[in-house]
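quick one: guanosine-5'-monophosphate bound model?
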Amino acid sequence: MAEPNPEPIQRRGLLYVLSSPSGAGKSTIARMLLAAEDELTLSVSATTRPMRPGETDGKDYHFVSNDQFDAMVANGEFLEWAHVFDRRYGTLKSEVDKTLADGRDVLLDIDWQGTQQLKQVDPDIVRVFILPPSLEELESRLRGRGTDSDEVIAGRMERATAEISHWAEYDYVLINDAAEICAAKARAILEAERLRRSRRTGLVDFVRTLTG
Ligand code: 5GP
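yep, here:
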């Protein structure tokens, strides 16, 4: 996609939510979006799940203990939080606030439960759901390196189907049959949403310069 022109009109930052069943390629799309969009920052969630090899604390997640998570809930530090796969995950107000204060947009990689809660807190969020191109493709992606038992795979497929059942709660739905194309569409949504009149706080003054 051609680079958009720099946009001179001041605007409110937006919250861009990406959800999908695991195996639909959401992390790849999120990585591509972040690499292409200078004004977009990932909201780093807090989680009680253990760190995986290759992950960095503070970059992929804020990895916290159950007690720490409890304290954060009690202190009202979350915009939303939910149980996912028997662990807890939550969006920190501080992550979102600091990005919006910088005049930037926030990318949130959260599940359907978090999306529902966030919509209550801020009706202005942009919700994007990514679907796999087929069940076969999803299963082959979930099988990954082929080290998991059929039982583990069946469990993952069940969770993926449960997540997919929430597709209609989203504003936009993308089918990820090719990551590059899907990421370009995700960028197009971001560009269009940035141009919404309601978010462009500087528009009134600009139009005044035109009309006197
Ligand atoms: P993973 O453990 O594979 O990184 O993430 C598992 C799931 O948790 C993903 O579907 C991801 O979108 C979701 N998730 C990650 N962070 C949050 C969060 O802060 N809130 C909610 N509700 N879900 C999250």
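Residues 134 and 177 are 9 Å apart (CA to CA).
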